Amino acid sequence: MKIAASTVLVNALAVQAVRIVQSNDDGWAELNIRALNDALIAGGHQVLLSGPAEDKSGSSSRDEQPENRDKPCEYNSCPANSPPYGHNSTREDLNWVNSYPVTSIRYGINMFAPKLWNGAAPELAVTGPNVGTNLFLSVPFSGTVGAACYASHDAGIPAIAFSGADDGRHAWNEAPRKSSSVYAQLATNLTSVVIASGKPYLPKDVFLNVNFPKVSDECSDASKYKFVLSRINPGIFSPKDVNWCGTDRLPTEDSVYKTKGCYVPVSIGDATDKTTINDGRQQEVLDKLKSILSCLPK
Hints:
Residues 1-23 form the signal peptide. It is a single chain. The protein has one domain: 3-Layer(aba) Sandwich (Stationary-phase Survival Protein Sure Homolog, Chain: A), CATH 3.40.1210. Helix content is 28%, strand content 18%. The chain has helices spanning 5-12, 31-42, 101-116, 143-154, 178-196, 253-258, 281-289, and strands at residues 19-23, 46-52, 85-87, 94-97, 124-131, 159-164, 206-212, 226-230, 263-270. A 9-stranded mixed beta sheet has the order 3-4-2-1-5-6-7-9-8, sandwiched between helices.
């Protein structure tokens, strides 16, 4: 039986608080990542944001040492001639790195987290919500996905990459936008279900690739959305998928996204190559997410 998103949000209050490292490829001061940061903190979690100093969309898994800046960070969120990395003047949990998303989350995991949490490591990595979807062919090029894969594969931290239909890039200090608020609530809901499922939150080398459709009159708040288990790439030549919704082939995330209604594809990604996991780990993920999953209409 599917649990409504609003119910999950209420239940999230009872979820054990965890340490979360957060990044994206649109920049540390973009509105989507800050809205999710606020929502996760409101849920009781300890959250460390470590994102690029500016928009680094499409940077995939590039990882280069940060350098000094000549210009201000995006939206004037850090001054010109700043050092290679820094943090908000009043909040050491909000960090920027003058490099790529993978570099940013690497610094968050290895440098900023031990300092902020007295040597403790992040327990979960959350990237995005990306400005614009990351579906199928675009997945390998996404810096938001790249950061999640680094966390999962290289750092051994369970990771979820969130993306949402493009509503334009906006600064952290702009008036709240409906899309950012809905995406933040949905991402918090799914994150809460993963945490409530217990450790290990996800199987080894698995990341979740989650894409939110456009917020519209039909899809106006989080309670209207339905999560659907999906594949990143078609499975024409792949082994059978986990048996779910009366079939042994999961729908592609692209087909779920294009289905009329408020459907959110949740793909079981392989952090080693950014394609679909196609082994027993599918069942493990299904068992963890089953309470929030729906089937597509016939």
